[in-house]
Amino acid sequence: GSEDLEMVEELSRRAVAAVDNARLYGEAQAAVRLRDEFLGIASHELKTPLTPLRLKLQMLQRQVNGARLEGEPLSAERISEALDVSLRQVRKLTDLVDNLLDVSRITAGRLRLELEELDLASVAAELLSRFAPSAAQLGCALELHAPEPVFGRWDRLRVEQVVTNLLSNAIKYGAGRPVVVRVEEDGERARLTVRDQGIGIAEEDLGRIFERFERAVSDRHYGGLGLGLYITRQIVEAFGGTVRVSSQPGQGSTFTLELPRGALPVPSVR
Ligand code: ADP
């Protein structure tokens, strides 16, 4: 009768609610796990540069004290080496903290863009020459194919940040093989591709590497917070552009960035 029907309806409503609850509970648990994992990685990454920094500063302190007390001469070479190492570690820490700040700016919808006329080809050329020495230390050659200037209205620092992220990943995960950057115009859009021939990315990871805190490699040999590509995508989307990847494990990856050349981006993203 109708009572049976009501009871069946009530039971199925409860079943649906129970499944919903279980799903929400699962999602909340996964979010907590991701946060805890992130805190672990972030603390490790922030602490790593601090040890060499402290050691070098202690060494400098001993040298300076020794020189003062015993009239020992200060070795300019050792001082300069200690300062080089220290500054490198400070730069690493600054980059990490800047990335964390960017993520909170993005989640709060406070990413501001200051537009100016730029040539993407010369931005890429400048960054390649900035990165060439550190890439060369890994045996990695950087090649640029940008036969023509490609003008558009973008935020210089943000465009540099995006290209820097793609380039430094290509060098980091590039197994010391050449990295090729191309810049070209495609009608209303500018296209920049970064191709490496390194470790590549497994198909099941391709979708999640642009998410916050997501890293495809669990290998601690490759340090990182898994924030670079998330920030990259958020910035690119704020310009009304896209970033995508194609990759083969063991063969390398190609990241393709497309930016509208003239469109006015929204002032901030969420
Ligand atoms: P990370 O700080 O871990 O490098 P990113 O957000 O820049 O963070 O990248 C997310 C993950 O995507 C990386 O941990 C790595 O697994 C993968 N990845 C990014 N770029 C490349 C690349 N060029 N080749 C292989 N894997 C890459």
Automatic annotation (TrEMBL):
This is histidine kinase. Residues 41-263 form the Histidine kinase domain. The chain holds residues 275 to 544 of 544 of the full protein. The lineage of its organism: Bacteria, Pseudomonadati, Myxococcota, Myxococcia, Myxococcales. It comes from the Bacteria. It comes from Hyalangium rubrum. Transmembrane segments: none annotated.
